[in-house]
Write a structure and sequence with these properties.
- It is a single chain.
- This protein has helices at about 60-75, 85-90, 100-115, 125-130, 145-150, 180-195, 285-300, 300-310, and strands spanning about 20, 25, 35-45, 45-55, 95, 160, 165-170, 200-205, 210, 220-225, 230-240, 245-250, 255, 260-265, 275-285, 315-320, 325-330, 335-339.
- With about 350 residues, it is of the alpha+beta class.
- The protein has a domain at about 75-180: T-fold.
- Strand 8 (about 200-205) and strand 9 form a beta hairpin.
- The longest helix has 19 residues, at about 60-75.
- The chain is globular.
């Protein structure tokens, strides 16, 4: 499983990306006092975030969306001192009061843990730390270290009290919501834009993409999916409207040892990088779901990953395995064009 609120690092890292293709048509509206356009690029959540919006007072709406996403980052990054997640980890083994919003996201993370039979686990922090994927010097742990770290993956033992807004994680566990919180931040940014009357928008947070409506020219947004075997090429283009799209790939963050590449999406059963898939793209109504599911499907692998997608309503996916084979869920076939 991966963590997407990692500390900044400069080791062998190729960020996952979903490219927004064909901005021809941006500027479709004539400028007026009531309808404006705005575009912003900022760095947050250890990635580049782009927001484009059309609507009443679009610039103010984008400003507010950026502030909301930054607020979410401060709350859920376990590396930010005194964030909600940091306080929970420091209080491991005891009950601690947190905002209702934090309880809700933890509950969602636990739900995806059960849904994926532990392939997604919000208590993966100790295992991530062991590999050092949050540092500039990652390395392969010993079998004994992995065995010990795997004992701390206990998402099903996280306790929540909805009446008092309190949470208690096992004393040996390290909560890490990075695998779902970036998507949640994107969802919150999109919600702000919708509330402010934005009619056409796209948010791209390092590959976590959320849209409002289609492009200003009336056509769907066209999103390019990176070829996992060639960082300079696209595998496919997906058309989406009012949806989110998230990709997880083994090319995002990795290091090499004796000619073997070790990537950061960890199998919660073995403790090693998950094998079998190269890339997973999930289309879902919200980016938090896409975040968690793209990671879980990657860990589950080719067959079990497909089975999970087919069980879920309103979720579509494109999988690429280690042999270069592609699988597209039935509801996505008409929206995908391979390059």
């Amino acid at each position: 499983m991966k963590s997407l609120f990692d500390r900044p690092s400069r080791w062998l890292s190729i960020p996952a990306f979903l490219l927004i293709i064909g901005f021809l048509g941006w500027g479709y509206y004539s400028q007026s006092a009531s309808v404006t356009e705005s575009e912003r690029t900022v760095f947050m959540m250890d990635t580049v975030v782009q927001i484009r919006a059309v609507g009443p007072q679009a610039e103010a709406a984008v400003d507010e969306a950026v502030k909301e996403m930054q607020r979410v980052e401060r709350m859920f990054s376990r590396f930010d001192e005194d964030s909600a997640v940091d306080r929970i980890n420091r209080a491991a083994g005891t009950w601690i009061s947190v905002p209702e919003e934090v309880i809700a996201l933890i509950a969602k993370g636990v739900e995806y843990g059960h849904l994926t039979e532990g392939a997604f686990d919000i208590t993966i922090g100790a295992l991530m730390d062991l590999w050092g994927f949050n540092t500039e010097s990652p390395s392969m742990p010993s079998q004994d270290e992995l065995h010990t770290a795997l004992q701390t993956l206990l998402f099903s033992e996280v306790e929540l009290n909805y009446m008092t807004n309190q949470v208690r994680i096992p004393s040996e566990s390290v909560l890490d919501l990075g695998g779902i919180a970036k998507g949640y931040a994107v969802d919150r940014g999109r919600r702000v834009l919708q509330t402010r009357g934005v009619t056409h928008s796209i948010i791209n947070a390092g590959g976590d993409i959320a849209t409002i409506g289609g492009r200003p020219d009336g056509r769907p947004w066209r999103v390019g999916i990176q070829d996992p075997t060639d960082s300079a090429s696209l595998l496919a283009v997906v058309e989406i409207t009012d949806m989110t799209i998230v990709t997880s790939g083994d090319y995002e963050r990795f290091f090499e040892l004796d000619g073997v590449r070790f990537h950061h999406i960890l199998d919660t059963k073995t403790g090693f990088p998950a094998e079998g898939l190269r890339s997973v793209t999930v289309i879902a109504p919200d980016a938090a779901a896409g975040d968690a599911l793209s990671t879980a499907i990657f860990v589950l692998g080719w067959e079990k990953g497909q089975e999970l997608v087919q069980q879920l309503d309103d979720v579509e996916a494109l999988l690429v395995n280690a042999e270069g084979e592609n699988w597209v869920s039935l509801g996505l076939i008409d929206s995908v064009t391979f390059r």
